[in-house]
Design brief:
There is one protein chain. With 535 residues, this protein is an alpha+beta fold. It has helices at 27-57, 71-78, 85-95, 100-110, 143-147, 153-160, 165-170, 186-202, 225-234, 237-246, 254-261, 280-290, 310-373, 381-385, 405-413, 506-516, and strands spanning 120-123, 126-131, 134-139, 250-253, 269-270, 273-274, 298-300, 304-307, 420-432, 435-447, 450-459, 462-472, 476-481, 488-493, 499-503, 531-533. The strands form 4 sheets. It has an 8-stranded mixed sheet. The model is unreliable at 518-525 (pLDDT under 50).
Length: 535
């Protein structure tokens, strides 16, 4: 085994069992309780005392709390002038070391010098020390014998002369043969070890973890209330809690407080950025005012801000989380708006493109219709000045709403689910016996396979539709028109009487008939119907 080299920074864990208060307490319990008294003294100096000193240093107004300083108990045990318990025990061992009973009687006599302390009582061969954890009665019988150093000098010399460096470090005291000094007793070793531990802890920054023992049976389901209250009381927690309640639970430097909570004030932050141009102290005051914290809940020191109750800090942390949550919501909202705007613009572009594409197709379709006439027919003035879109289904025959007139026309035309490519009102030339034919209002419905003429009339106040004529597109031979601006059209059929009617949308009708025609007898090179214009 080799000792490690010293390090500049170390982390250590000190495990303390705690006070021992039994029915019969002896030298072992005195040593253990003495060490706990020393550690409690450090706890008081480093926490409770430092707490109040910080308030004084920071010029904070508060009510000081009196607490029990157990330094008097430590002096009662370890002091030399006036002699304490350990000093009296060492003297008793030195004067009557041969007889343990005589040494115990000598110890009883020497302990009367400690009776001046209100934390000590001697009676009936026992003595009581009022520790901070409670009063403990120790038995004098056998105590001096346990205080003696039973390790022989020969054994010490053997370990000191060992080649193992670890064994040599276990006994660092000088073993000179001609030394007339009294060898150290067990209490001396305990006191030296405790003082070295205290010195090392005073140079450190200790953090405390207090454990509570719920019962003596090591049972996870038992909770001894009296036992727990006793530990809470004598572990020094009560004094710490009292000072914390009377003082301030939270304290932080101005810079770190502003760095943590500057988002909570509109004067110190904007959109998550720090915009305060003044000092950190003024920024702390501004943040506390803007968060509506009562003035009695906080104080400003010389270098730190103090907040009395932890609920205030929890509230500030909650507000800080809400701020980030709100900022996240704003970012999400802005992103969703951007996505919606982007989608809307994309939809608009797509819609415009579809409209343009459809318009291009319709314009091409119209140009195809104009090419069918080939300049053989006069154009109307408004037809030349404007570019009308070919809608096709002007009577809404393709509508699925049963309450519309277009649906009734579909039923009358008996076209089923076949879509109508063109529908319009026309003047149909109706032949009469022994008289000239007469134009009558009718409805023209053109599908991919049929051309239907439907009559609309009112019978007993009700509108009724009747199918006048329904011919196949394949039965159309050709179309004839006049060279003038009128819309009269003659549909020559192969084996049926011709159809003569006047349609306002003659060019569009011709174009649709040309596009759906598949079986005409006379065709032009592009496969459509041939249209002739003559007087």
């Amino acid at each position: 085994m080799q000792a490690r080299s010293e390090a500049r920074y170390i982390i250590g864990v000190l495990d303390i069992y705690g006070f021992e208060i039994f029915d019969h307490n002896s030298f072992e319990q005195l040593c253990i309780n003495y060490v706990n008294e020393k550690l409690q003294q450090i706890f008081i100096e480093l926490t409770l005392k430092a707490e109040q000193e910080e308030y004084v240093r920071e010029k904070i107004e508060w009510t000081p709390i009196d607490y029990f300083n157990n330094k008097v108990v430590c002096d009662l045990i370890e002091a030399k002038r006036p002699p304490g318990v350990f000093a009296a025990m060492n003297d008793a061992c030195a004067t009557a070391h041969a007889d343990p009973k005589a040494a115990d009687q000598s110890l009883s006599q020497r302990l009367t010098a400690c009776s001046h302390s209100k934390h000590f009582a001697l009676y009936d061969g026992n003595f009581t020390v009022k520790h901070y954890a409670g009063d403990v009665t120790y038995m004098l019988s056998g105590m001096t014998d346990k205080n003696k150093d039973q390790l022989l000098r020969d054994h010490l010399e053997l370990c000191k002369g060992s080649s193992n460096s670890f064994l040599q470090t276990l006994f660092p005291e000088d073993l000179a043969q001609d030394s007339k000094r009294r060898p150290p007793t067990a209490s001396d070793r305990i006191k030296v070890s405790a003082n070295e531990l205290v010195t090392k802890l005073m140079q450190s920054q200790p953090s405390y973890i207090r454990t509570i023992k719920p019962n003596e049976n090591k049972s996870p389901s038992e909770f001894d209330v009296k036992r727990v209250l006793h530990q809470v009381k004598y572990l020094g927690l009560c004094e710490n809690i009292r000072i914390r309640r009377a003082g301030f639970a939270y304290r932080q430097t101005f810079e770190k407080f502003v760095e943590r909570f500057y988002l909570l004030s509109s004067q110190t932050s904007y959109a998550g950025d720090f915009i305060w141009t003044g000092g950190s102290k003024e920024a702390c005051i501004q943040i506390l005012k803007d968060t509506d914290i009562k003035s009695e809940e906080w104080q400003i020191g010389t270098t730190k801000v103090f907040i009395r109750h932890p609920e205030v800090i929890w509230g500030l942390e909650t507000m800080r989380e809400h701020y980030w949550h709100g900022m996240a919501q704003r970012i999400q909202t802005a992103w969703r708006k951007y996505q919606a705007f982007r989608a809307a613009k994309a939809t608009k572009i797509q819609r415009v493109w579809r409209q343009k594409r459809q318009a291009f197709e319709l314009i091409k379709f119209r140009e195809h219709g104009d090419g069918l006439l080939g300049g053989k027919k006069e154009r109307r003035r408004f037809s030349i000045c404007s570019l009308r879109t070919f809608n096709g289904d002007y009577l809404m025959v393709n509508s699925r709403d049963k309450h519309t007139r277009g649906f009734l026309l579909r039923e009358a035309a008996q076209i089923g689910s076949e879509p109508a490519v063109f529908s319009s009102r026309i003047e149909f030339l109706v032949p009469r016996a022994m008289r000239s034919a007469r134009p009558m209002p009718r409805q023209l419905v053109v599908t991919k396979d049929h051309v239907c003429i439907v009559e609309e009339k009112v019978v007993d106040g009700l509108v009724q539709h009747a199918l006048v004529s329904k011919i196949d597109v394949a039965a159309i031979k050709d179309l004839a028109m006049s060279p003038y601006q009128d819309g009269w059209t003659v549909v020559h059929l192969m084996s049926q009487p011709d159809l003569v009617f006047n349609c306002e949308f003659k060019t569009e009708m011709l174009t649709w008939l040309n596009s759906v025609s598949q079986a005409a007898t006379t065709r032009n090179p592009d496969g459509g119907l041939q249209c002739t214009c003559r007087c």
